[in-house]
Design brief:
- With about 280 residues, the protein is of the alpha/beta class.
- About 35% of the residues lie in helices and about 20% in strands.
- It is globular, with a radius of gyration of 20 Å.
- It starts with 5 loop residues before the first strand and ends in a 5-residue tail after the last helix.
């Protein structure tokens, strides 16, 4: 059986029926070639590319949230044809869709290779939704609002400590020459009660809840953590598998910032930490 690398796609601005149609087309991408996985709208994971509704002004506004020099290619579906991005007309021809995506991904891979050779990293998405009002402060101001306590710990709630150990290695190896990030405390527990107590007694910047951990009800646990005094800036995210049915409304009511799909690649961990913690880019 031929192994294919799964590229992640963020669909932007489409109505649910067209989202379902595009997800079906992407899932049927032929061999040989890439496979595609569409991110949930609440996913904190960095996509490999964007597919946007070219006739939806809200989609264009959301793309404007991307940081300058973003390396993710963008494909527009429909619109007036005047877009600076690659565009496909409706109805979408599947063969042409796969061809254009392959060309865009080739461009992305070359850009990432060039970036790595220069010793730099790409900037993560600043926000997933357009701001309701224009920015009036410096970018660092909004970055501080998204981040938890500057020296707070990362708390992982999981059935075992293996993922915690892996995260600690990734952070240590990546920021070995930077004292602050490399020394950030990364803790683990398999107990919801202990997690609530730790967040109450010590500064915690980020809580990562494995939704399949035994005895853990993730929405209730997040709500309990976020309801504590001083937890307003503590970010809570879910680690979800394919079998978990993520409920956006319940998650937002419980104060969940978003989700990461398992297994989580190291580059997605780092991009998430750069977004939610005071880690250098």
């Amino acid at each position: 059986m031929q192994t294919r690398y799964p590229f992640t796609v963020r669909l932007v601005g489409f109505a649910p029926p067209e989202c379902a149609q595009l997800e079906s087309l992407l899932a049927q991408a032929p061999l040989p070639g890439a496979s595609y996985f569409c991110l949930h709208d609440d996913s904190l994971q960095e996509p490999d590319l964007y597919i946007a509704d070219g006739s939806n002004p809200a989609a264009l506004a959301r793309l404007a949230c991307l940081p300058p020099g973003a390396l993710q290619p963008i494909l527009m579906i429909g619109g007036d044809g005047a877009s600076k991005y690659r565009t496909l007309p409706r109805p979408v021809d599947s063969a042409r869709l796969y061809q254009v995506l392959a060309e865009l991904l080739d461009t992305r891979v070359k850009a990432l290779v060039a970036l790595a050779a220069s010793g730099e990293r790409s900037l993560p998405e600043r926000r997933r939704r357009p701001r309701l009002a224009p920015d009036t402060e410096a970018p660092a101001y909004y970055q501080r609002l998204r981040q938890g306590p500057p020296d707070g710990a990362v708390l992982i709630i999981d059935k075992g400590g293996a993922f915690r150990d892996h995260v600690a290695r990734v952070v240590s190896n990546t920021f070995a020459n930077t004292a602050g990030p490399a020394s950030r405390s990364i803790e683990w527990t398999d107990s919801g009660r202990a997690a609530v107590r730790l967040c109450d007694e010590t500064p915690v910047s980020l809580v990562m809840i494995n939704t399949c951990a035994t005895g853990i009800e993730p929405y209730s646990l997040s709500s309990a953590i976020k309801s504590q005094e001083g937890a307003g800036r503590t970010a809570v995210l879910f680690l979800v598998g394919q079998s978990f049915k993520y409920d956006s409304l319940r998650a937002r009511d419980a104060g969940v910032r978003g989700l990461l799909d398992k297994p989580v690649a190291d580059r997605h961990l780092l991009a998430t930490f750069q977004k939610l913690l005071a880690l250098p880019h």
